[in-house]
Amino acid sequence: MQALHNFNAATVVFYLLAALAVASALGVALSRNILHSAFSLLGTLAGVAGLYFLLGADFVAVVQLLVYVGGILVLILFAVLLTREITDIRISNLSVSLLGGVPAALLLLGLVTHICLHAPFASTAPATAPTVHRLGDALLREYALPFEIASVVLLMALVGAMVIARRAVKEEARSAVDNPEAPPTDGVGAGAGGAR
Amino acid sequence: MTALVTIGLHHYLVVASLLFVLGLLTVATRRNAVAILMGVELILNAASLNFVAFSKYAHGGVAGQVFSLFIILLAAAEAVIALAIVLAIFRNFKNVDVFATTTLRE
Question: Does the pTM of the predicted model rise above 0.90?
Answer without folding.
Answer: no
